[in-house]
Design a protein that fits this description.
This protein has 231 residues and is of the alpha/beta class. It has one domain: Rossmann fold (3-Layer(aba) Sandwich). 43% of the residues lie in helices and 21% in strands. The protein is globular and about 45 Å long. The two termini are 33 Å apart. The relative contact order is 0.17.
Length: 231
């Protein structure tokens, strides 16, 4: 139920981004961080891609980019926006089961783990293991550590706003967020948090060899990204 509630939130009109500048900077940063892992002309699955506003920046270096999003309205908007790019395909999570083994050089799941239960995460890891080519890479991004609080997220957003030119909007946006549906959901449902060693153990149990990356994907350096290779 919690995951469906989060999907409904992301599929609705929400104010998680303080303005258009924040919205675009957020996705541009993720795309630029992600594409560093993409081999030239590689096949890429971005699972839980969100609105993927900067997907073309990843597609430039990829041979094929599959954007997978559970929220149907968001997914339809991505399909419309990327219709002219022959490298980009848009799929639902249900579509992935029909894909052949070893379809991808790299699978990325960024800022999704916090919305999943352990019971949901396990089957996904098994799916990604099947879909990756031998020697392929799974990137698990933006994992929230156990001791990171909402205050840490606020500070990261303010620093990002200062760098990208939306600091004043971020300050007003934070006040608005306190009274938003996002804040209510975060309080009611919570977000999954993980210890580094537990993430590594979970990946090992799914037959991945893994390590923590030196830098997180996205603007929040206190969160964790993991790199994993199928055994």
């Amino acid at each position: 139920m919690a995951t469906r509630d989060w999907i409904s939130f992301w599929d609705s009109k929400h104010s998680i981004y303080v303005n258009a500048r924040h919205h675009h900077a957020h996705y541009r940063r993720i795309a630029d961080d992600m594409r560093r892992y993409v081999p030239p002309d590689g096949t890429v699955l971005d699972y839980g891609c969100g609105e993927a506003l900067a997907a073309d920046r990843v597609a430039v270096v990829a041979g094929r980019l599959v954007l997978c999003e559970a929220a149907p309205t968001v997914r339809a908007a991505i399909a419309t926006r990327s219709a002219g790019n022959g490298k980009i395909e848009v799929r639902s999570p249900e579509d992935l089961a029909a894909l052949p083994d070893h379809s991808f050089d790299i699978v990325v799941m960024h800022s999704v783990a916090q919305y999943l239960t352990p019971a949901e995460l396990g089957p996904l890891l098994a799916l990604f293991h099947r879909l990756l080519k031998p020697g392929g890479l799974f990137v698990l991004g933006d994992v929230i550590p156990l001791k990171v609080s909402a205050v840490t997220d606020v500070l990261a957003l303010l620093r990002f706003g200062a760098r990208e030119g939306f600091l004043t909007a971020a300050l007003f946006g934070l006040v608005r967020t306190v009274f938003s549906s996002y804040s209510r959901l975060r309080t009611t449902l919570g977000l999954a948090r993980y210890d580094e060693k537990d993430v590594l153990a979970t990946l090992a149990a799914a037959d991945f060899v893994a390590k923590r990356a030196n830098h997180n994907i996205g603007h929040n350096p206190e969160r964790m990204t993991f790199l994993a290779w199928p055994m």
